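ok so I'm stuck.
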Amino acid sequence: MKLPWFIWIPRTLVILVCLFAALFSFDVFEGDAPLGQQLLGFLMHNIPVLVVLLALILTWKRPLIAGAVFGALTLFIIILLAVFFRKFFWVDFLAFILPLLIGVALFFLAHFMGEKGKIGHSEEEVKREL
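replied:
not stuck anymore, here's the structure
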């Protein structure tokens, strides 16, 4: 199945959200801790970013699976923000959750649009993929 051109929009959104989240991890270099501890802190701050990027890599050519995986990740992030960060929930929602929700919708749309902008897949296309 040939993926539609707009499959790049959700991929780009996910990468931009990861870069934005990784930006906040550079604060570990402000203290007086040894370089080893700072690098370890930097790695620990970026574990969620690495998990999201790994999910993107594993689902690169499978938009239906990408939509499901990023939908689950987005739901997990919503629950974490609602439980632990209630004070800034709406700011975090606009910065992290909304782009991911748009990405999820576009991943599903890319899957269901199929080849040449048609909605759905023919039986022949499904058999060829198997």
